[in-house]
Specification:
Keywords: Signal. Residues 1-23 form the signal peptide. InterPro entries: DUF2490. With 237 residues, the protein is mainly β. It has helices spanning 2-14, 232-236; strands at residues 25-40, 43-54, 59-74, 77-90, 95-112, 115-128, 140-151, 158-169, 178-190, 195-206, 213-226. It has a single domain, classed as Beta Barrel (Porin). The protein is built from two helices and eleven strands; from the N terminus they run αβββββββββββα. 7% of the residues are buried.
Length: 237
């Protein structure tokens, strides 16, 4: 337990110190997600759907439909890309906007005793609809940097994890800067090789933006891995 607490403190220290130029708005939301995965040798294909709420979980924040591909040439290294179709509730203009998002990422991990450390570097591009209005950044391009630690509890199907992720702008005409930090505490329960349920608490801290929001989120995500079809010989054994 002492090692777990030490790892969490190190991850917390990883977060950048923040200064808020404007008053922060507090919000609470609930996120619910489902993901379907299929592994073929070194490749993993996935499709997912996520529903997000806002305003004390009483209003629609957005829906995220995703398609992803990951390739793992080595045991502790993975490359991936994904596409997301987003329906976003823009409260500033009081309308639902379609958006398209592309992600490109690399993830590496390292095991030490019962700890697993992973670092994910992600390039994210979000394309907004400009049929009714113009945006300063379109696509909005950001670099996301996530450091995570998991702890393997002996003889347990439950795995706790903690992560810190920073968001950095890449195409702001007024000058690039960090605009967000995410802290996430996760508890994953693996029923078997194919079924996993994750419950998480997340804190999103917006910085260096016009109307910053600090959002506390409770989330639930279910993942189903598709297995290989059994042939008749295997079924009879």
């Amino acid at each position: 337990m002492k090692r777990l607490l030490t790892a969490i403190l190190l991850l917390t220290a990883y977060a950048l110190p923040t200064k808020h130029a404007n008053a922060q708005t507090e919000d609470f939301g609930a996120w619910f997600g489902f993901q379907l995965e299929k592994e073929i040798k070194d490749w993993t294909f996935s499709v997912g759907e996520e529903l997000r709420t806002t305003d004390a979980a009483s209003d629609f924040y957005g829906s995220y439909t995703s398609l992803g591909i990951d390739y793992s040439p080595f045991k502790h290294l993975k490359f991936g890309t994904s596409y997301q179709f987003i329906l976003y509730n823009d409260t500033e203009y009081d309308d639902i906007q379609p958006r398209h998002r592309l992600n490109f990422q690399t993830t590496g991990d390292l095991k030490w005793n019962r700890f697993k450390f992973s670092l994910r570097e992600r390039l994210q591009m979000t394309f907004k609809d400009e049929s009714e209005r113009d945006y300063k950044m379109n696509p909005k391009t950001r670099w996301r940097n996530r450091l995570e630690v998991e702890y393997n509890i002996p003889k347990s199907k439950f795995t706790p994890a903690f992560s810190v992720e920073s968001y950095y702008q890449l195409n702001n005409p007024d000058g690039n800067k960090f605009d967000g930090i995410r802290y996430k505490l996760t508890g994953a329960y693996k029923f078997n090789k194919r079924n996993k349920l994750e419950l998480y608490a997340q804190y999103d801290n917006e910085i260096n933006v016009k109307n910053p929001v600090d959002r506390t989120i409770i989330g639930l995500e279910y993942t189903l891995k598709l297995g290989k079809k059994k042939n008749k010989k295997e079924e009879n054994e």
